[in-house]
Amino acid sequence: MANTNRFTGLFRGPINHEASSVINSISNGSIDMGSVVELGATVLSSDILPRVTSGVGLGGSNVYGVAVGGDTDGVYGDGSAAVDDTNRATNAAGQGVVVVTQGRCPARVGGAVGGAVAVGDKLTMSAVTGVLQKVSAAGQTVIAIALDAVLAADTDIIAVDIQRQGGAHAI
């Protein structure tokens, strides 16, 4: 079941609006739907919203949340960049992006990059752009908890619960 979207009927936003914190932001480039994002540098002094970019860097500590919509407002995909931008929340810098910073939402999670993921596993940012993986070492920043499983060979869209817990957690 490689590269599966487990939420084909959900096209935008968090899984539960009442239990989520959703922030409007500005993208610093193209961002796939369901990608983990981190705070980026402010580009214009007139920016009144935070700038975000697709997160990359194992165990990253500058994580802001998960992209769940934006100006391009594509569908959740396996993360392969489509030529027609169908899998993207944004396709250029300066566009609006909707980010879940707390609560439940679909996210790109890679078993292929950090090993199989089980329900309840702590997740961190991986070395693959925009993808979460299972925490593999003490001190990595816990970003979310997996609410579904991902096989070791896959990268799937699964439900996660974003509860940024910071670093220095034992595994």
Q: Care to describe what's here?
A:
The protein is mostly beta strands. 2% of the residues lie in helices and 39% in strands. It has a 5-stranded mixed barrel. A two-stranded antiparallel sheet has the order 2-6. The radius of gyration is 14 Å and the shape is globular. The chain starts with 20 loop residues before the first strand and ends in a 5-residue tail after the last strand.
Helix/strand/pairing class, anyone? mainly beta
Q: Helicity level, as a percent range?
A: under 10%
- Strand portion: 35-45%
Question: Could you please say which CATH topology applies here?
Answer: Virus Head Decoration Protein, Chain: A
Average of pLDDT = 83
CATH architecture: Beta Barrel
What string, H for helix and E for strand, traces the elements in order? EEEEEEEHEEEE
Helix segment count?
Answer: 1
Number of strands: 11
CATH class: Mainly Beta
Large-scale geometry: globular
List keywords for this structure.
171 residues, mainly beta, Virus Head Decoration Protein, Chain: A, five-stranded mixed beta barrel, two-stranded antiparallel ribbon, 11 strands, 39% strand
